[in-house]
Design goal:
Number of helices: 5
Distance between the termini: 31 Å
Strand order of the largest sheet: 1-2
Helix content: 40-55%
Shape: globular
Radius of gyration: 16 Å
Largest sheet: 2 strands, antiparallel
Structural class: mainly alpha
Number of domains: 1
Number of strands: 2
Order of helices and strands: HHHHEEH
Length: 139
Amino acid sequence: MRNCYYSNLIEGHNTRPRDIERALAGAELEEETRPLALEARAHVIVQRAIDEIHRIGTLPRPTSVAFLTWVHKSFYDEMPDEFRFIEHPDGTQEPIVPGRMRQDDDRQVAVGRYLPPHQRASRHSWTTSTIGFRLRHGL
């Protein structure tokens, strides 16, 4: 839960640990803290799933497209509706499709205060990371 708390702070989402615990327990949440608490809940649920597949020895390469899209899908499948869209600087919105990687013709996005690299750079980075991971781990 600590990882979730600090990760959300980096994204500008100040969710109190007690709200995360309440969301995980399925307790009623205050309306103003509900969306962020449910976002944190999604984060913890997916991290627990990753930990479990690692524990049983079936964790795929963490840099693989299959793994990254599974994480994205799992995370957004758990997200509250308030966080299932992208809002662009011009005010337009588009839905987030769980598990779908950004395509070259997609608009650039921001995640909280974070501006990720363009799609083409991301794809190159993933390929480089995957090759490096395989070499370091003899795969």
